């Protein structure tokens, strides 16, 4: 008979692509995980993994079985949470990029603390690669990251489609909140600050520069977002940043903030969570509040652009 422990071990190996990493995630020994998989394969009468040295790859049967197992674990987790009452309690850990901690976090957090005073929340700020790994390992209830390729063990939903901006130090009398679109091919040569390779937006920015005849005079790799903004404000270097990052700076006077145009560049941000788990009521509440504040910022951008065209 198949046990829940065997199913959890199978899902962990599938998602981690390693018996060793699965053992670490499950707080078990490698030999124990291996034994669970052998027992499971014996009970099912099929091989779930192909093993070549340290490489572990799911068979076709393993891929089909994984989908069913994740659904079982998700439903079981949701069922357990449903009988604990409707009161919003417990501690949650949420991962956010600087794009969100600098803008929409504050109002969402204030609303959460008002609506769920008996809950505790911890915010972890990091970039997409680190946040995705923490979600996969179950260290975060959810995170918000740029959309990228699918990752086994993680479910996702779109939270915002945002417009990318050219951010420069303010020069002259131009108002920073004008949001005048800019064609980068006409704005160069640019000395541009880029996020590091682990940032999911790096590839899309590099592709945009290469395919739109943008002249780049210099590149600087910088993953400290506050430091990036300080440097841009005091130099002739520029950065490409999401509108969500810059919404609170529109009328502050430090920056010229210009939507990339001809063509525009967008970034999709998604909420990711472990596929095997359901969000707790507290995590679900905070996710809804964060989504609401994000949508409000996106509506504000559309309103400002419409006012400019009028």
Explain briefly what this protein structure is:
It contains twelve helices and eleven strands. The protein has helices at residues 4-16, 19-26, 30-44, 60-82, 98-101, 105-115, 128-136, 184-187, 201-211, 225-233, 243-246, 281-309; strands spanning 49-52, 55-58, 90-96, 119-125, 142-146, 154-169, 190-194, 216-221, 238-242, 255-259, 266-274. It is elongated and about 75 Å long.
Can you describe this structure?
- This protein is of the alpha/beta class.
- It has 3 domains: 4-82, Orthogonal Bundle (Arc Repressor Mutant, subunit A), CATH 1.10.10.10; 90-159 and 268-309, Periplasmic binding protein-like II (D-Maltodextrin-Binding Protein, domain 2, 3-Layer(aba) Sandwich), CATH 3.40.190; 161-266, D-Maltodextrin-Binding Protein, domain 2 (3-Layer(aba) Sandwich), CATH 3.40.190.
- It is 45% helix and 24% strand.
- α6 packs antiparallel against α12 (281-309).
- The longest helix has 29 residues, at 281-309.
- The model has no long low-confidence stretch (mean pLDDT 88).
Annotation keywords:
310 residues; alpha/beta; Arc Repressor Mutant, subunit A; D-Maltodextrin-Binding Protein, domain 2; 3 domains; two-stranded antiparallel sheet; 12 helices; elongated
Largest sheet, if any?
9 strands, mixed
| Helix/strand structural class | alpha/beta
Please tally the β strands and state the result: 11
What share of the residues does DSSP label as strand, in percent?
Answer: 15-25%
Number of discrete domains? 3
Low-confidence stretches: none
CATH class of the largest domain: Alpha Beta
pLDDT average, as an integer? Answer: 88
> What would you give as the CATH superfamily of the largest domain?
Periplasmic binding protein-like II
Q: Tell me the span between the first and last alpha carbons.
A: 69 Å
CATH domain fold name of the largest domain = D-Maltodextrin-Binding Protein, domain 2
Looking at the overall shape, the CATH architecture of the largest domain is: 3-Layer(aba) Sandwich
Number of helices: 12
Helix percent band:
40-55%
Order of helices and strands: HHHEEHEHHEHEEHEHEHEHEEH
Provide the gyration radius in Å. 23 Å
Write down the overall geometry: elongated
